[in-house]
Amino acid sequence: MNFFRQWYEFMMMGTKAFARWEIDNSKTILGDRKRLIALGLLIVPIIIVGVAFAEPISGVLPDLLGGKKAYSPAFYNTFIFIVSIAIGMGAGLITGCIGAGGGFVIAPALMSAGIKGILAVGTDLFHIFAKAIMGSVIHRKLGNVSVPLAAVFLIGAIIGATLGGVINRFFYEINPVLSDAFITTVYSGMLGFLGIYAMTDFLKARKAAAGGAVDTGAHGGKEEGAEMGNLPKKLQAMKIPPMVKFDYDFTPGGRGISWIFLVLAGCLVGMAAGIMGVGGGFLTFPIFVYVLGVSSMTTVGTDIFQIVFTAGYAAISQYAIYGFIFYTLAMGMLLGSLLGIQVGAMTTKVVKGITIRGFYAMAVLAGFVNRAFALPGKLGALGYIPISKQAGDILDTIGVWAFFIVIAGFGVWVIGTFLFNIKTLKGEVTA
To answer: Where are the domains of the chain?
Structure first.
């Protein structure tokens, strides 16, 4: 259990680093007039076309773009665009308010709204990439980045992202339901793992707060990450050339790891990104710190570095060119997340940290319930388990309602708290 606890802690460090990067990106985009104009030029035509031509073109564009193989028309309808803004807003509120994990809800939310899993993954990757581009790709506040470490890691990440995209398309070509079942299974496992530990952390923190103990944070992993366990020591002792050097600030002469282990780690992270569409950053932290022995200071910068390029490569080469990106949804999510992140980040100034942690645990567990309850119906449709279509639909409906009630409730609470305390946040009254 200690291994899984440490793995969870490092995963949370990774998602927090990604959240900080997203918050910085949001500030960069919203604080720059030229970027706001560019965002408007991308989004306004979508709204105009949707209002004027949604019905006439909705049945024509798919054929013009490749028949049943193409799923990226310029527009479907106004309602879907509004839903995408709401999904982006929900993910942004979680990222900004909680500081971790907002991207985990995007693919489940899109799939619950009726979007095919493979399209949800491709759209999520493109949304991440578009935000990175508009926020100036590699942000100035990345911190410590080891270029040799990142470059070799990206070799594996590109291989893994390619493999992940191939796997998703392979299952989709066999049967779209099989593709959805596969993506749903992966998300169920990951969200279940995160949700259980997040809720455990919240309950422990609440008990400690009730007993008067000082809240030292949900995730007690060493922030510096300069100390190594036995596994990274053994791997770094295997001198298989060429060796990649890093962490000169923590160890005289730096540390070194064989390029083989970096490429293998990159493959795993890239595959996760290619299959799930969340960038894979949540895996980079535990792998770098817990397996490869990289300090968390260096990992922060390298993690964000790889997310930008891995998401961009996977989105374009594995999904966009095959028609598996819904650009209207991506732009809607981008708009919603930019606003949600800022509202969420400001709300943290007037909300207790323990409350935020409780909402995070509930949001992740809601995502787990959503995907876990959708899985039986999909497996039943494939003939893998004996369950009627009616029973599968009932379970799926329960999962969808449970998910959206929790996320919507969280959104209403955050926005309501923000509006109620807006004078305090502006500094017009004393908190």
So the answer is: 2-426
